[in-house]
Design goal:
The complex is a heterodimer of chains A (387) and B (188). Chain A is mainly α and 387 residues long. Helices cover 52% and strands 12% of the residues of chain A. In chain A, strands 1-2-3 form a 3-stranded antiparallel beta sheet. In chain A, strands 6-7-8 form a 3-stranded antiparallel beta sheet. In chain A, β4 (148-149) and β5 form a beta hairpin. The longest helix of chain A has 30 residues, at 86-115. The relative contact order of chain A is 0.20. Helices cover 20% and strands 21% of the residues of chain B. Chain B has 4 helices and 8 strands. In chain B, the strands form 2 sheets. A 5-stranded mixed beta sheet of chain B has the order 1-3-6-5-4. A two-stranded parallel sheet of chain B has the order 7-8. In chain B, β5 and β6 (88-96) form a beta hairpin. The longest helix of chain B has 12 residues, at 113-124. The chains are: A mainly alpha (387), B alpha/beta (188).
């Protein structure tokens, strides 16, 4: 029998469709069918300036907008050959790690809800809500942040922002303990996730899986350590790795990542407190908007402002690929520039798209009920798969 | 282990494949290590890059198509390779001329190429010969054209009239009979 799961099934987290060939309750073949949310973002980017494409990136992985902003901006900065000041790097690290916590909260809540544990959903959303309020405080938007810019940030962090982050970071580890108290030794949770949706390290590498899926299969690989960006090499944190490659191990990896993310946030806040107020963008006005005060007083600043707003900046002819460790895995942007203010080609290497391919390996030969667990443990976002 | 430099990767490749004209991409702002190679040697070079213990490019991270219209050769396919043990990236580039570009599939080297190649096929119409299931992936199955080619029309779709509509989607004669009859209005 062939069964269509989705595109409207609640546990497919959006508009994923899986064509399942069944023998009784056993899955013989699982074929994910994607594309229902395709909006042609790569094509659209070719007709926008670099800055105009930043709001598009929020809508790819809409659960981790800041990570997408960061990957986009870092790739553009690599193309331009510029690097942002340490204070900006610390703000970016702080916000992307908060994003990781929020994204993992969302994953944990919905994954547990799919399997039947309802309370975790409410608890995890409580903390996600706090991160969204922090977003709102820093940039005015809760979901589509668009806060990072090529060469810096859209605006400086507001007053009281660091205290607010500090409160959240201090209380978060206790909340992670709460989630773990609900699930880690829960017999139902163990029965539904342990030994289910197994992905061997060999398959994970061959299928290009990254992020917690790769680390849950026993491969210690994290771009923050392997190819550091934004000064991650100066932070003290660990990369959790588990070896059995089942849904339970991916759960443990992500929960531990939430703890590690709070550690990084803590260090970033301290660093920002030490640095005090300062520039929130690079002072290279060929690529970055000059401060408004200077625009009012300096002729050159006015011209730079006008040129960047009217045309966008002109990158050199060339190409660059830059990847970051997003909550879901390796998120990369590849730019080909022909020297005009619009990219000749923008390619998005989205982690969910590549990770999605592992679903067939995880569920073939298993029960239909395990497909739900497998999809949940993959942590996919269809906005990012379809783009 | 000594760090794997881009020069070392090239050296190893030239040792193993003396006849293959590898060419490093030069440019003012080419920020990554990119090698051009001919399409017909792609699979063996990739297999070597994956299996050689020193290079160990175990993962294919991404594939991108590029349309360089009006330049010739028009198309490029870029392969983003990743070595987990070093960690090091290298990009391979294949140049393809003509309206119907073809390149051999690397699905046998890295199974992840399945969807990556389908995506590139979907956007550019680049045919990956030997791919077992080369269908559109993100666009609808009945989509006409290759949207990321630079000559793909942007909007301004032709409106469907009787004279430009194919027979199969014209209303059948039976359906026409069901349409309301014209009523003659009489003045009171």
């Amino acid at each position: 029998m062939t069964l269509n799961m989705g595109p409207q099934h609640p546990s497919t987290h959006g508009v994923l469709r899986v064509a399942l060939e069944l023998d009784g309750e056993t899955v013989v073949k699982a074929r994910p069918i994607v594309g229902y949310l395709h909006t042609g973002m790569e094509k659209q980017a070719e007709y926008k300036t670099y800055t105009q494409s930043i709001p598009q990136t929020d809508r790819m992985d809409y659960l981790a907008p800041m990570s997408n902003n960061l990957a986009f901006c870092l790739a553009a900065e690599k193309l331009l050959g510029i690097e942002v000041p340490p204070r900006v790097q610390a703000i970016r690290v702080l916000l992307t790690e908060l994003t990781r916590i929020s994204s993992h909260c969302m994953w944990l809540g919905t994954h547990a809800l799919d399997i039947g544990a309802m309370t975790v959903f409410f608890w995890a959303f409580r903390e996600r809500e706090k991160v969204l309020s922090i977003y709102e405080h820093v940039c005015g938007a809760r979901l589509t942040a668009s806060y990072f810019r090529v060469g810096g940030l859209a605006m400086d962090i507001p007053e009281g922002f660091l205290d607010r982050c500090r409160t959240f970071v201090d209380e978060m580890p206790a909340h992670v303990d709460e989630y773990e108290a609900m699930l880690t030794k829960n017999p139902i949770w163990l029965a539904r996730t342990r030994g289910v949706a197994i992905l061997s390290a060999r398959d994970a590498v061959a299928l290009g899986a990254t992020g917690p899926i790769l680390r849950g299969s026993g491969v210690q690989y994290d771009l923050r350590k392997a190819q550091p960006y934004s000064g991650y090499e100066t932070y003290d944190f660990e990369i959790p790795v588990r070896t059995s490659g089942d849904a339970y191990d991916r759960y443990l990896v992500r929960v531990e990542e939430m703890r590690q993310a709070t550690r990084i946030c803590d260090q970033a806040i301290r660093r920002l407190e030490e640095l005090g107020p300062g520039d929130y963008r690079l002072r290279d006005f060929k690529y970055v908007l000059p401060p408004k005060e200077e625009v009012k007083t300096s002729m050159e600043a006015l011209i730079h402002h006008f040129k960047i707003v009217a045309h966008g900046f002109f990158p050199p002819v060339g190409e660059a690929y830059q990847a970051i460790e997003a909550p879901k895995g390796e998120l990369g942007f590849y730019f080909v520039s022909d020297g005009t203010p619009r990219p000749w080609r923008m390619k998005v290497r989205s982690p969910s798209f590549v990770n999605m391919q592992t679903l067939s390996v995880m569920v073939e030969g298993r029960l239909v009920a395990d497909v739900i667990t497998a999809i949940g443990s993959l942590d996919i976002v269809l906005g990012e798969i379809d783009r | 282990m000594t760090p794997l430099t881009p020069e070392r990767v090239e050296e190893r490749l030239r040792e193993r494949f003396p006849g293959v004209p590898f060419r490093r991409q030069e440019g003012e702002a080419v920020r990554d290590h990119t090698l051009y190679l001919p399409a017909e040697r792609l699979v063996e070079v990739c297999t070597f890059l994956r299996d050689d213990p020193e290079l160990d490019f175990a993962m294919l991270s991404w594939i991108a198509g590029v349309d360089n219209l009006p330049r010739e050769p028009r198309f490029e396919v870029v392969y983003g390779l990743l070595s987990l043990s070093h960690p090091r990236r290298v990009h391979l580039k294949i140049e393809l001329a003509g309206e119907q570009p073809r390149v051999p599939t690397v699905i046998g080297v890295w199974p992840t190429a399945d969807w990556l190649e389908r995506e590139t096929y979907d956007f550019y119409g680049i045919e990956f010969t030997g791919h077992p299931d080369l269908r559109r992936i993100l666009l609808p199955e009945d989509w006409v054209g290759w949207p990321l080619r630079k000559d793909s029309p942007l909007g301004y779709e032709e409106v469907a009239f009787t004279h430009n509509t194919p027979e199969r989607i014209k209303p059948s004669p039976e359906l026409r009979k069901l349409q309301p009859k014209k009523v003659k209005y009489r003045a009171h």
